Amino acid sequence: MDHHIPMHALPEEIQKMLPEEKVCKYCGVSYLILHEFKAMEEKVKAMEKEMKFYQGSVDREKRLQEKLHSLSQELEQYEIDNKSKTESKIYFRLMLRLEVEHCQLKERMPDLQHSVTEPYIGL
Prior knowledge:
Blueprint: H1 12-15, H2 31-108
């Protein structure tokens, strides 16, 4: 701990006081030190409160990281599901188009109706 050197000397009347006059009769602490001690106590209380806030911040940060990870996994799963659904829709559309084209082909060429019974799907 650093030794504090005061910038200004104590007033002469305080310097001339007897030691018994400069101390608290209840606890024996010098009034000059007691004031500084009380100020330090208040600083410690404020710092403890601040530390509790930061401790809570660490816990909140951890919970938020876990939530972010969970949401990222959900998003990834939704993207996979969406891709699968999109691929299914594309497949269904292609199959529908083939069936429509097959029907149109059968209408245009009635004589081939007996030889072509099912559409050729070469996927």
